[in-house]
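Postdoc handover notes: sequence design on the structure in folder B. Input tokens:
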């Protein structure tokens, strides 16, 4: 697979935008009509709390919470859609379900809401998958994720910051890493393959390599052409000397 498989389409922008827009619309509806939708978040190890596995990523406690999740979610979804188009929906949907379920299993007895667990799924998957492919563009994307969102790793540990669901973050990280192992991507090949990388390459038949001796020193070879004015008896062992004169300044 090469760069031709990374094709831009409007879905790279539209799908992430629609998903993030849905979060803002739901937040507005909740505030406008006083629905108290946060009650449908993940409440660990209760039957009613299971509904939060699907609902929690779309619910946010306040405007700051929603804003902080919107930008990284928009960027990571766009990156996932562009670079991993064929498994975009699998990572997205299964990421919501399995990270939510793990949170339901290991979470503290609080209501867990927010899209941060999905953000951790995306960041973890993009990072680990890029490193595993060893393809230069995806590795560069992985390094970019580390550069921009690397500090998120601290929030998978307990007691780092009050009021956050470190369980949801940890669940997202685990799911992203697992998906990177499970989901296969096409083999990525180098765009340029040089002659000496082919198994049947013979240096003795390479005209460029013939201009070097066994010690790697450059040698001059005779020029053979059907031109009577060219001396074909040139001895390649002769050295070429260059003379120059300094120009005197007036």
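Designed sequence:
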């Amino acid at each position: 697979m090469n760069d031709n498989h990374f094709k831009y389409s409007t879905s790279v922008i539209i799908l992430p935008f629609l998903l993030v827009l849905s979060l803002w619309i739901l937040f507005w509806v909740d505030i406008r009509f006083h629905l108290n939708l946060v009650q449908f978040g993940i409440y660990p190890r209760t039957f009613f709390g299971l509904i939060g596995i699907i609902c929690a990523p779309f619910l946010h406690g306040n405007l700051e919470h929603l804003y902080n999740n919107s930008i990284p979610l928009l960027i990571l979804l766009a990156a996932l859609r562009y670079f991993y188009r064929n498994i975009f929906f699998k990572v997205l949907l299964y990421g919501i379900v399995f990270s939510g379920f793990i949170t339901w299993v290991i979470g503290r007895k609080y209501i867990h809401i927010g899209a941060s667990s999905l953000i951790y799924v995306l960041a973890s998957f993009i990072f680990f998958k890029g490193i595993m492919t060893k393809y230069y563009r995806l590795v560069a994307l992985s390094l970019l994720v580390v550069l921009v969102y690397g500090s998120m790793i601290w929030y998978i540990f307990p007691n780092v910051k009050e009021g956050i669901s470190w369980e949801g973050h940890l669940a997202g990280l685990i799911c992203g890493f697992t998906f990177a192992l499970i989901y296969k991507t096409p083999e990525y090949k180098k765009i340029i393959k040089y002659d000496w990388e082919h198994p049947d390459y013979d240096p003795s038949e390479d005209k460029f390599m013939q201009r070097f001796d066994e010690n790697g020193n450059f040698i001059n070879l005779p020029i053979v052409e059907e031109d009577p004015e060219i001396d074909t008896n040139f001895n390649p062992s002769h050295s070429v000397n260059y003379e120059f004169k300094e120009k005197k300044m007036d």
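Context for whoever picks this up: Confidence is low (pLDDT under 50) at residues 238-244. Don't rerun without checking with the PI first.
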